[in-house]
Design brief:
Blueprint (H helix, E strand, L loop, with lengths): L2 E4 L5 E4 L7 E5 L44 H9 L8 H6 L3 H7 L1 E3 L19 H19 L1 H10 L1 E5 L2 H13 L6 H24 L4 E5 L8 H4 L9 H21 L7 E5 L1 H10 L8 E5 L1 E2 L14 E2 L6 E3 L7 H13 L5 E2 L3 H6 L4
Helix pairs in contact: 1-11, 3-4, 4-5, 7-9
Keywords: Hydrolase, Lipid degradation, Lipid metabolism
InterPro entries: GDSL, GDSL_Est/Lipase, SGNH_hydro_sf, SGNH_plant_lipase-like
Protein name: GDSL esterase/lipase
Amino acid sequence: MVLSVVVASGVELPVQRPRVPAMYVFGDSTLDVGNNNHLEGEQVPRANKPYYGIDLPGSGKPTGRFSNGYNVADFVAKNLGFEKSPLAYMVLKARNYLIPSAITRGVSYASAGAGILDATNAGNNIPLSQQVRLFESTKAEMEAKVGPQAVSKLLSNSFFLVGAGSNDFFAFATAQAKQNSTATQSDVTAFYGSLLSNYSATITELYKLGARKIGIINVGPVGCVPRVRVLNATGACADGMNQLAAGFDAALKSTIAALAPKLPGLAYSVADRFGLTQATFANTLGLGFVSSDSACCGSGRLGAQGDCTPTATLCAARDRYIFWDSVHPSQRAAMLGAQAYFDGPAQYTSPISFKQLANMMSS
């Protein structure tokens, strides 16, 4: 039986028996569904006030998603047959509901501000390495409940979604600006080396913990977000940042391709957020968007000189803006991204699509 749900944008998505038993999410604010709301500290980024969530189906209230509604994790989950992303780890712990949720649906460990590197925005998020540690402790609780064999089977068939890196690039660019210097080739090589080492360690550790289907979302054109564009008098993208991200994405793709054969039974898909976003910019009007450079919710030039708050300026046509705030995609942009990772065109995933990955039988 196939049911249908209509999201706020009017787009109908089928909801059917999930393709996988559970989904586990690791990454940053593009995937966070509420973990940061439960972290202490004044500098912790949170999406816990209007106008965040204004278009979220069923409530229209902020939940910790850095979006006007659903985010990329939600739409990946929908394409897998779930209603939305699994709940945030911190939310489940607060409700004393980590088990059974971890077994029946999955868990999201994603945290806004997190990077591939522990040093990125340190102290104000759950870094990627710590997210994996939290999953390890979750697995132990799962095994205590249903036994190691059942957990192993569950995890080998589940979908693991990983998306991080943008914050590392923002931090790298900020550090260079503070030093009033341009990164040398040796700086870039060292930076890439640290990122790729940590990313490989993350994938390897998830594999050791039982993951066999891992969907990876690469780093998008970070030089084109409104918060970066507004620093340019003409509002143009920062080409240097984009080239840095593109170089990393190419290295990540080849690094994962070289790592996979060393992890027997691992299947993976790398989603090209960079290429897809660039294609979206090139066909803004054709895709029904009217703005590709400004935030729907914000203030000042490009809507990027102020945060998305209850006193911010809100655009009238929220589904026609690629960017919701000065960094994050709108609900509709997130939906189109997840759709491409599942249904193509094929150039936006490698070596297989998220759909093909989800449908694979575990060995």
